[in-house]
Amino acid sequence: MAVTGLIMVLFLLVHMYGNLKLFYGQAEFDDYAYHLRTMGQPYLPYSGGLWIIRVVLLVSVLTHIASAFTLWARSRRATGGRGGGRYQSTRARRGVQRSYSSFTMRWGGVTIALFVVYHLLHLTTDTIHPGGVSSSAYVRTVNGFEIWWVVLSYTVALIAIGFHLRHGFWAALASLGANTSRRRRRHLNALAVAVAVVITVGFLVPPYTVLFGGITA
Amino acid sequence: MNITLRIWRQPGPGRPGHMVTHRVDDISPDMSFLEVLDVLNQRLTAAGEDPVAFDSDCREGICGMCGLVINGIAHGPQASVTTCQLHMRSFADGDVIDVEPWRAGPFPVLKDLVVDRSALDRIIQAGGYISIPTGSAPEAHSILVPKDDAEDAFDAATCIGCGACVAACPNGSAALFLGAKITHLGLLPQGQPERDSRALAMIARHDAEGFGGCSQIGECTAVCPKDIQLEVISRCHRDVVTALFHHGEQQEGPPEDQTGGNLASGPAGD
Ligand code: HEM
Ligand code: SF4
Ligand code: SF4
Ligand code: FES
């Protein structure tokens, strides 16, 4: 859970950084998309590097989901399927100190998984093309984000990712043994909030810039 | 003070139960929560009714017997105390208070508010022995312990095995209890010879008892009467991961379950 989660966070940081190239215009962005496919050449065949990353990501996603199901099943068994809501009393339904994010991990995860499928169909395979078909990744992206509901759907997904990472990043580090004192705990939690905010905001900057006319195809 | 208690009444293991309302009048704000249950039981007994079954022993916050979920919070609204050390001044006159047993798959309810917590004992047992000379008391300076380690180990050793961490955990995990026990011996020189096998055997027992997996939510430490800190869970995971690495190097089979092999003192609870 923790290791695969951290691999995906790393991917998100790189992906977010890559998306910011949208600001440099079509040539630069499409060139970047092209380089994603030629990286590692001539050691690797065309798209070889990209496929290695895709396989690592796919294995991470599947392992992450499988671990989540295992944890969920154990949690159900240990709490009669009711989790934190297993007491008759309704006065402490939100627990004593738990974060809002910690409630959203399961459904947040499902939301993100659905988003990734939608997003791949949209910008990688060009199967869904709300802004029109194009062989240019730049044009696909910009045309897509000129439509308000596309931006809205990305916004919902990225907020879900933000919450998921707020708890997930902290939990991954703690599960790997990094939480060794109260001070460390404060720092790890602050780091998790920072990573969540950077990723959510960093990803949302290009779509909103497109929507408000700052970038055009 | 006059209060109303809504108490989980269940006639026996596996039998259906439900919340029953009992009024308790004329109690003092200086009474402990358990004394109020004593008063209620005297009145119920005098009236020929079945008294409320609940656990207690030391009534001074050190034995870990007295866990109750009060208004949805393990050991009640006041932080860092056991139920026996919770006083009625923490409540207001006229309050309606919900009282329930610990709820977790591995803690079956025996009657009313009494649960069977022996799953925690079996985790301790799985930890097995530590190799130390017993008999006459050793010379105090013969084993040196760094001050910080001694303090952290002692903090972890204050865990009284009450099980509130499990009762509060949204995943029904005993990770905080397990972490306290692993940290306690793992930090001390006396705990080193069996450090790896102990970590592996105890976490295996924890999982086999049906406790959930920890997802670092932190409700456990918030209700722990002994303020066991969340870092014991990270320390436990470190020991388990280290043990798995060592284990891979040694190319052995899985560690044998050391239950019943208590030669010297085990990682005792209190
Ligand atoms: C506003 C935010 C985002 C934008 C503008 C964006 C844009 C893009 C574009 C243009 C591609 C296609 C690249 C190419 O084929 O050359 C792509 C691929 C991809 N994106 Fe995003 N993305 C965003 C957010 C996300 C998020 C939040 C995730 C994950 C949760 C994600 C996961 C992926 C994945 C897995 C691929 C496929 C990589 C591959 O195998 O080719 N994206 N994205
Ligand atoms: S860790 Fe705290 S809550 Fe859990 S059993 Fe020990 S003393 Fe009780
Ligand atoms: S940190 Fe959370 S999930 Fe882990 S044992 Fe404590 S309450 Fe349960
Ligand atoms: S009765 Fe011993 S801790 Fe409460």
Automatic annotation (TrEMBL), chain B:
Top-level division of the source organism's lineage: Bacteria
GO molecular function: 2 iron, 2 sulfur cluster binding; electron transfer activity; metal ion binding
Region Disordered: start-end pairs: 247-270
SUPFAM superfamilies: 2Fe-2S ferredoxin-like (SSF54292), alpha-helical ferredoxin (SSF46548)
The protein's name: Succinate dehydrogenase/fumarate reductase iron-sulfur subunit
Record GO biological process: aerobic respiration; respiratory electron transport chain
Organism encoding this protein: Streptacidiphilus pinicola
Family statement: Belongs to the succinate dehydrogenase/fumarate reductase iron-sulfur protein family.
InterPro entries associated with the record: 2Fe-2S_ferredoxin-like_sf, 2Fe2S_fd_BS, 4Fe4S_Fe-S-bd, 4Fe4S_Fe_S_CS, Beta-grasp_dom_sf, Helical_ferredxn, SDH/FRD_Iron-Sulfur, Succ_DH/fum_Rdtase_N
Key words of the record: Iron, Iron-sulfur, Metal-binding
4Fe-4S ferredoxin-type domain boundaries: 150-179
Co-factor(s): [2Fe-2S] cluster; [3Fe-4S] cluster
